[in-house]
């Protein structure tokens, strides 16, 4: 199975800040990576797929990059609604695996 | 508008069975693979399994943790997805989300339902 490791596990930031979350795959997944946002008590929401393609309706403050084993999600101009948990997911091979999540908290 | 609405969760004893459902609307259900993903209380997301569409013979994939106990099925005539869970364990306690797999060449999960809670306890 491909292991997905996110860092950091939690992150404190202020409104207006820029943050970067890293996701590392245990083997090459090309660009078969998606990022999801989950607010407390809500369903996950797709943000980015194919490592860097913005999902329809997602603002450009979110961006993704990377290929192979190392990926990043960057969020600029943090707003209160951005404080949530973020997950990366690989869909290169079965079983599909998901990172442990990065909790973004307000400082 | 794409909508996915899960139902059928509840309390079940260890070793018991339960079927949860997901009703889809706002898109051509039969054109899409569909997934189940679960989230134990206070924990992260865990992929459960996938069912492909008719053109791919409705074949399925499962996580090792549920293979042999869980079965995914679908009824395209009713725009419905099902997760049949047998031999339930306490560790299966989670919110179960259904999710649509994007059609085309990419296979990420582009829409998710709100989830249904399954509690396995004596």
Please work out how many helical segments of chain A DSSP would assign.
0
Largest sheet of chain B: 7 strands, mixed
Greatest chain-chain contact: A-B, 25 and 24 residues
User: β content of chain B, as a range?
Assistant: over 45%
Rg from Cα of chain B = 14 Å
Taken in chain order, the helices and strands of chain B follow as EEEEEEEEEEE
In sequence order, what are the helices and strands of chain A, one letter per element?
A: EEEEEEEEEEE
Mean pLDDT of chain B: 97
Oligomer classification: heterodimer
Structural class label of chain B: mainly beta
> What shape does the CA trace of chain A take?
globular
Low-pLDDT windows of residues of chain B: none
Nearest-integer average pLDDT of chain A:
97
Number of DSSP E strands of chain B: 11
Task: Give the total of beta strands of chain A.
Answer: 11
If you compute it from the alpha carbons, what radius of gyration of chain A comes out, rounded to the nearest whole angstrom? 13 Å
**Number of helical regions of chain B:** 0
Summarize the amount of helix of chain B as a percent range: under 10%
Ends of chain A: how far apart? Answer: 36 Å
Query: What distance separates the N and C termini of chain B?
Result: 40 Å
Largest sheet data of chain A:
7 strands, mixed
Overview features:
heterodimer; A: 107 residues; mainly beta; 7-stranded mixed sheet; 4-stranded antiparallel sheet; 50% strand; B: mainly beta; 11 strands
């Amino acid at each position: 199975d491909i292991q997905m490791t996110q860092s950091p596990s939690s992150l404190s930031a202020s409104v207006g800040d820029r943050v970067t979350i890293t996701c590392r795959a245990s083997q090459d997944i090309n660009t078969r990576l998606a990022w999801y946002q989950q607010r407390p008590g809500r369903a996950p929401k797709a943000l980015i797929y194919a490592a860097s393609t913005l999902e329809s309706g997602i603002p450009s403050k979110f961006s993704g990059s990377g290929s192979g084993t190392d990926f990043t999600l960057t969020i600029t101009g943090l707003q209160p609604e951005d404080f949530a948990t973020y997950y990366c997911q690989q869909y290169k091979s079965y079983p599909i695996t998901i990172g442990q999540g990065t909790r973004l908290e307000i400082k | 508008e794409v909508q996915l609405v899960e139902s059928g969760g509840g309390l079940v004893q260890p070793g018991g069975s339960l079927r949860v459902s997901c009703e889809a609307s706002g898109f051509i259900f039969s054109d899409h693979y569909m997934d189940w993903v679960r989230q134990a209380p206070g924990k992260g997301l865990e992929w459960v399994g996938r069912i492909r569409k008719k053109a791919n013979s409705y074949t399925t994939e499962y996580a090792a943790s549920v293979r042999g106990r869980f079965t995914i099925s679908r009824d395209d005539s009713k725009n419905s997805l099902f997760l049949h869970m047998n031999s339930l364990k306490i560790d299966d306690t989670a919110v179960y989300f259904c999710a649509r797999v994007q059609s085309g060449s990419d296979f990420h999960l582009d829409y998710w339902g709100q989830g249904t809670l399954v509690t396995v306890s004596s």
